[in-house]
Amino acid sequence: MNVKVLTIIKITVLTYLLTISMPVINVFAIGDNYDETGFRSNRTYIEYSTQEYVNPFSGNLILSHTDVFLPGNGGLDLKIQRTYNSKIFLDPDTSEISGIRNGSMGIGWTFHFGRIVHEPFSVNGPLLYLEMPDGSFHNLYNNNHSNINSHINSNFITEDFWKANYDEAKKEFTMTLTDGTVYTFGQYVTDLISVHHYYATSIKDTNGNEIRIEYYDC
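-> structure tokens emitted (218 positions)
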């Protein structure tokens, strides 16, 4: 007799870790090749160590640290990661720091379990992208063409064929990776200049194992 064991890991994250301090200035130009941050699937990086990388085109230094690693059932491991990007300035001449990079872990550092960011007033036009805990970026593209992409129908899609759907009523994104892992981004936060953040609240694999993240005010 086969017995299915459902493993649920519940994480409590204090809201202050996700507090976004945003000066009222233009949003960081994520789409600009000269100012891009994070890991991109179509870029080559120089690796100086297992935690230190440089984008030779933009000059951005990336530090990616895994502070906690707990093996999980079926390969759904719990990782607590933080990432640093050196491209933190909106304008090097004025030394204005991008609000996206001015987090509670320190200037240039980000810490989360995955988030989708919508920048409707970016200098490069509206942006919608996924940022993973390891520092990788994945742009979300409109995929509302069921007659063309019926086999991968969804609201949005990434270059890696990760599918995302948005529930307007819940203000929630659901993303399915190619290996079947499902991320739910149900913690909605907006800031002073209308940049919208959707933080991960659940990570579930095809075996039913799940990591749940809850957020509390403090």
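DSSP finds no helices and 20 strands in the chain.
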